[in-house]
Known about the structure:
The complex is a heterodimer of chains A (586) and B (277).
Chain A: E1 7-18, E2 24-34, E3 38-42, H1 49-57, H2 59-62, E4 66-74, H3 79-82, H4 84-87, E5 91-94, H5 107-117, H6 122-135, H7 151-163, E6 169-173, H8 181-197, E7 201-205, H9 209-212, E8 218-223, E9 226-231, H10 233-238, H11 240-246, H12 252-259, H13 269-277, H14 283-286, E10 313-321, E11 327-336, E12 341-345, H15 352-359, E13 367-372, E14 375-376, H16 382-385, E15 389-392, H17 405-415, H18 420-433, H19 449-461, E16 467-471, H20 479-496, E17 499-503, H21 507-513, E18 516-521, E19 524-529, H22 531-535, H23 538-543, H24 550-559, H25 566-585
Parallel strand pairs in A: 3-7, 3-8, 5-6, 6-7, 12-17, 12-18, 15-16, 16-17
Antiparallel strand pairs in A: 1-2, 1-4, 8-9, 10-11, 10-13, 13-14, 18-19
Helix pairs in contact in A: 5-6, 5-7, 6-7, 7-8, 12-25, 13-24, 17-18, 17-19, 19-20
Chain B: H1 17-33, H2 37-53, H3 62-82, E1 96-101, E2 111-115, H4 116-142, H5 145-153, H6 160-188, H7 199-207, H8 210-230, H9 249-272
Antiparallel strand pairs in B: 1-2
Helix pairs in contact in B: 1-4, 1-9, 2-4, 3-4, 5-6, 6-8
Amino acid sequence: MFYLEPKIVSLKDVTFSYKGSKRQALRGVSLDVKEGECIAILGPTGAGKSTLACVINGTVPRFIEGKLTGDVVVDGQIPNNVGTAQMASRVGLVFGDPDTQLFGMTVEEDVAFGPANLGFDYETIMERITRAIEDMRLQGLEQRAPHRLSGGQKQATAIAGVYAMLPKIMVLDEPTSMLDPEGKARVFSIIRDLNKSFGMTIILIEQEVDDILELADRVFIMKSGEFVLGGTPEEVFAAVDELKEVGIRVPSIVEFGNLIGADKTPFSVEEAVSTVKSGAWNKAIVGDAPIEDRAAPGLSVGSESTQDTAPILEAVDLEFRYPLGVKALDGASLEVYPGEFVAIVGQNGAGKTTLTRHFNGLLRPSAGDIRLFGKSVLDEPTASLCATVGYVFQNPDEQLFCDTVEDELRFGPMNIGMDKDRMEESVRDILLDIGLDKYRQVWPRYLTKGERQRLALASVVAMEPEILIVDEPTTGLDWLESLQILDYLERLRKEKGKTILIITHDMNIVSLYAKRVVVMANGRVVGEGTPREVFSQPKLMELAYLRRPQIADLSDTLWGEVLLTPHEAADRLKRSSSTNREVAGK
Amino acid sequence: MIVEYESKQTPIHRLDPRAKFMWVVATIIISIIWTDPVYLFGLGVFTVIIGFMGDFPWPKMKGTFMFLLIVTAIITLIQGATYLPKVVWLANPERVAFYLIPRWIPVIGPAWPLRIGGLIYGICMALKVFVVLIAISVFGYVTSPSEVVQIIVRLPFVSYKSGFVVSAASKFVPVIQMQLATLRDAERSKGVDFDSGSFTEKVKKTTSMLVPLFANALSMADTMALAMESRAFGYSKNFTLIRPYQMQASDWLMVVFSVGGLVASIVCLAVFKLGAL
């Protein structure tokens, strides 16, 4: 049990099972949070983090039914006795998807929703709106329709709506999971203000480890409904092996600090630079740092040039305008070569999805050409193109149609008229490949998000396309699930020679898997190269509102070169240290 | 296509929703009772002026207007050929304007005479359709669904929850439409060809999307309900109306103008036959 005084949240031996389920979503969870503290809860999907959030604000078990045991006291109240709506003025809960938590027709109306429900008078509501809009930096957007805002602005509006109720505690359940890098930065900056400037108690459930390092006073790791690690960020992130076992990505700066045996674990680029420059690290440990050790085992970083062959897919000066008048593509050109692993990056609205949806005919350009194996395919229907260009959508729930996992894999091949024997063989192999063999007769909806995402991907792979386009394959997944998806794609590329295009916001994934990065902004391809080349161009990154991985920032600051993994950076330090010693020796 | 509400600061947007509601109701009733195309044209011009004052995006209605133009042209021709009203101010409403099957077609021509009276009546019907459509579209463009809720909740014996349900449901429609489009694209990406096959096959292809569509909608509704609960929905019976609408001079002006116009048009029609054919 973790204990601090004065505590605003106190959970003692809390256990919860959802109605109709024998499995315990929470198993003997104990936690004390003191007023004004910021705690971060990390863990794989299905660990019980969201259930815990709902226990704290009382929606479990009053709204979401089930069996709750143990003691829960929040701001002096027992949520189960008080009721959710009454708890709302004490505990604010913000979810990951802003679209499901915006109720007003304008930002102002949405922010007013909570206080209006509480029955405050008009003047009080207007005061609260003004304050929330100002503090969440939404000035000028008061009369804008929420659904027309950017992802970051939408989530800021959702937070403002909760903030306007002036709760003492704010629980944020993966608030940045659906945002692009710019949106994430905005939301984290707001959370920092809520805690540091306005003194609000923050309980932050996250997958983004890099951003919580400087923010959280304490970090807890959940797995299978219980806390398996907890303490200060220094204490928790020092336990690298335990974190990897749970499936939490160790922040690259922390891993670098551990690799070089830093006297004090660095949590920011500045701290890491200071550690290196002051020599506060163990030179003997660096000498043993294995260069090839990687966060994603078995893969190699670097470029594999395939551009000496003819392109398999070409987009030539594509232009496209949506019916409401938004010009989404403005002369976008791209060449893709056989066997490449290409990552397309850029902020939301840059045109990434619009561009790739042209490749299998889902969208048709108003100008320009699409060539497959050198031949224009503008007149080819999607139903025939899909046998060569597979497209996996972002949300698995929008592309699973059948009653069983097995039938889902048959759906595409049957539509394109694949030979039955070949189809059955392919289905059997794929089920084993993606680890869903034991679920072949299960309704896809019963699978976890990670499993559904793998199934969605496999259902397209089953059609045996040459090119596979995967739109944001890691959204809403934990690090381990993300690696499973990306490892599978990399295997398809290496073993079956498939050409892979992914759209992603995750620069760590880009670092580890992409052989070429295509940067998009304002409907155009504005830059491309290996991850190293792209991360070495600050102006390009700025133009596309991208943030390179922290380790790239660190290596650039220290040595003026971009490195992609903590091990590379540690090895670079070792080499520079040896050189310095040699120079000193001479 | 019905034009979606847009938050703007035009004089019409700023009007109290009750004033806007009175205007649209008065316009619809007047357009129904008037049968004289000259009067209806005047009403149409006034409605268009209100639309311009509300910065209504006319180009977005182009497709709808084109479709209506064709439909109303057909209505006008059919009315002109089949119905002959008594037109007060027309000396000879029975006079033939032209024949649908002209005189120069041998054997069957001339046939289906289009009489002036019937033609005027057809134009009148077409104008009615246009006026009502424009008035409703402009009202929808300048009045947010939450303002409609504000109107509903001010009605006696209606709880704000009912009003909110109407508002939430209206916001759900475009979300479902987008979901449907994505599901359709996902099926197309797996080789489903919606353009080929018999009617039964096409229906079968479409129905396969229904399960994920409803499952996703339910899941979304569930999260939405949780988010509403977390923001104290239903905490107090006294939901504070976000805008405590107070009728300003401009609102009263619109109400007086609308109600006055309605009463005047009824009286003038009943007593002096003004507005009637």
